[in-house]
Amino acid sequence: MNTLPNTEIVLHILLAVGLILLAAKYLGVLARKIGIPEVAGMIVAGLLLRFLPWFKNFGGNEPNLIFAETNQFITYMAEIGVILIMFSAGLSTNLKSLIKSGPKATVIACCGVFVPLLMGTIMSFFFFGFTGWGTPEFFKCMFIGTILTATSVSITVAVLKEYGKLKTDIGQTIVSAAIIDDVIGIIVLTIVLGVSSGKGGYLTIILKTLAFFACAIVAGFVLYKLFRWYDKKHPRSRRIPIYALGFALLFAFCAEEFFGIADITGAYIAGIVFCSLSDASYMESKIDINAYMLFSPVFFASIGLKTDLSGMQMDLLWFSVAFVIIGCISKIIGCGGISKLMGYSWKESIQVGLGMMVRGEVALIVATKGLSTGLIDPKYFTAVILLIIVSSMLVPILLKKAFSVKKESEQITPIEH
Q1: Of the candidates 108, 114, 144, 115, which has an alpha carbon nearest to the alpha carbon of residue 128?
Q2: Of 89, 90, 150, 61, nearest to 335 (Cα)?
Q3: Which residues contact 249 (CB under 8 A, 6 or more apart)?
Q4: CA-CA distance, 411 to 415, in Å (whole number)?
């Protein structure tokens, strides 16, 4: 019977995690200083770490047991990081703002999901071929489109704040639509993963999804009442974030174990359950400490570690270029086009389309789930990373230009009065 050199494995894990934290945080801060999202810097850190001997053949069939155990440990930490990110995203949801601009934002979000899903799927047919409905190749193409449905609003919010547009009708519409967009996108992800895995037909998956949300609403209502009562008796208690995180992990487990729903969906719903509590921001800050210091850097660096650049050939290069172009214009067409039909001006419609164009954490999370289920090859992570970097750099520049004229006119108006 072979035994693993446990001490050597533990030491190797300590070395690997230490290198990840240092590299991810340093390059993350460096990226932010030059105007690139911190997430992009962390991903680049993972790409660079991949060449070190301590991360040999990450994600592959490594014959060395020490490397295999280390890689598995990092994978587990990355999975917890995903759940923490989605739980925190749910906690930061503003339900009042969501409800206020709900009707318009919902329509924009639906088009912001449908158009990229359709255009991304059709684009993939040209690269992978169309072999018929319901085939593994069809689901791979559909999953490419699913990745494009995601929206990251963090960079857009920063620009809107800078120009004082966050609380305007356009600002609230963009933020609310982005939140709803991610909810719909996660539901689409859940259905695609469920159907492609062969666990059931479309109707079965939809019924399971509806059953999950019905159970989540009932359980969430009970939990909300319980936490609100406890919150009043023990405001800002350090126990509240711990209890909330525990339930978030249970929601994540139950979602995937009993309903076949992605665990990140359960974590996100758990965050929405607690987002209206008076101590929601306090809970979010505590959760973010754990995510910021340990799990998030490991997650984002692991994306880079899993990215296989060895197969970067002309076909992958052309796919990446097409993926980025379709990813950018599909949001402008879907969100901006429907905004124009709902009565917004051309300028406002372009502002909405640009505000919804940026990608970030959710796109990475969706792509990661596809990697774990075999719906996407590791080399195609390159295209996802390029989309995140390009859209993150373009959106602030284009959105500032889209708001600049209006900003100048608003500066003149008070003087005239």
Answers
A1: 144
A2: 150
A3: 83, 267
A4: 8
- Counting beta carbons within 10 angstroms of the beta carbon of residue 417, is it exposed (0 to 12), middle (13 to 18) or buried (19 or more)? exposed
User: CA 338: distance to chain centroid?
Assistant: 24
369 falls in which pLDDT band (50, 70, 90)?
confident
**How many CB atoms neighbour CB 243 within 10 A?**
16
Cβ–Cβ under 8 Å, residues 246 and 283: no
Q: Yes or no: say if 383 and 320 are a contact pair by the CB < 8 Å rule.
A: yes
Q: Rounded to whole angstroms, what are the CA distances from 99 to 73, 94, 175?
A: 41, 9, 12
270-304 per-position pLDDT tens digit: 988 998 888 888 888 888 888 888 888 888 888 77
**CA separation for the pair 106, 407 (Å, rounded):** 27
Backbone angles phi, psi at 166, to 5 degrees: -65, -35
User: Long-range contacts: 210-216, Cβ < 8 Å, 24+?
Assistant: 211/259, 212/255, 212/259, 212/261, 212/265, 212/266, 213/269, 215/259, 216/251, 216/266, 216/269, 216/273
User: Is the model's pLDDT at 414 over the cut of 80?
Assistant: no
Contact 167, 145 (CB under 8 A): no
SS3 2: coil
The size of the chain, in residues, is 417
Of the listed ranges 10-14, 103-107, 335-339, 377-381, the one predicted with least confidence: 377-381
36 φψ region: left (φ > 0), alpha (ψ -120 to 50), beta (else): beta
Tokens 């009970």, located at residue: 222
Q: What is the pTM of this model?
A: 0.71
Running DSSP on this structure, what letter comes out for residue 52?
S
Alpha-carbon gap, residue 124 to 130, rounded angstroms: 9
**Rounded Cα–Cα distance for residues 216 and 237 (Å):** 25
